[in-house]
């Protein structure tokens, strides 16, 4: 049974930092590209960042580029998202997901992800 469990969310002030983690089990972690998505109240789920199977390439939404860093530790079956200079508009539930996609457009598409975590809430106050 595949499980993706996010942690590290919380309530912070604008300008603060957070690091999200996603612990994976039940799958061969290094066989999957991994992504972070987020969903704010009343909005659709949106792509945040993705990383290829061995971490050689990373991709970001324009809204987080330069502030967020995605990384992974395949030995620990764990995905990370370092979020710096947080803004109120970053407030959302953040989800990690696993995909067998190998192209950039596919890694940006939520429907190309096979497994999802339950999400962790990030709230940024102004």
Q: How would you briefly describe this protein structure?
A:
The protein is mostly beta strands and 126 residues long.
Structural class of the secondary elements?
mainly beta
**What is the share of helical residues?**
under 10%
Assembly level: single chain
> How do the SSEs run, as a string of H and E?
EEEEEEEEEHEE
Based on CA inertia axes, which overall geometry fits?
A: globular
Features:
126 residues; 3% helix; 11 strands; 1 helix; mainly beta; 7-stranded mixed sheet; 4-stranded antiparallel sheet
Describe this structure in words.
- With 126 residues, this protein is mainly β.
- Helix content is 3%, strand content 50%.
- The protein is built from 1 helix and 11 strands; from the N terminus they run βββββββββαββ.
- Strands 2, 4, 5, 6, 9, 10 and 11 form a 7-stranded mixed β-sheet that branches. Strands 1-3-8-7 form a 4-stranded antiparallel β-sheet, with no helix packed on it.
- It is globular, with a radius of gyration of 13 Å.
- The mean pLDDT is 96.
């Amino acid at each position: 049974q595949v499980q993706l469990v996010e942690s590290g969310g919380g309530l912070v002030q604008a300008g603060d930092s957070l690091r999200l983690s996603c612990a994976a089990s039940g799958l061969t972690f290094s066989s999957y590209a991994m992504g972070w998505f987020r969903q704010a109240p009343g909005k659709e789920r949106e792509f945040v960042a993705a990383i290829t199977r061995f971490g050689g390439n990373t991709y970001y939404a324009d809204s987080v580029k330069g502030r967020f860093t995605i990384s992974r530790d395949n030995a620990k079956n764990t995905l990370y998202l370092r979020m710096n200079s947080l803004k109120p508009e970053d407030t959302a539930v953040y989800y990690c997901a696993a995909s067998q996609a190998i192209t950039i457009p596919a890694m940006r598409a939520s429907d190309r992800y096979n497994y999802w975590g339950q999400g962790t809430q990030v709230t940024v106050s102004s």
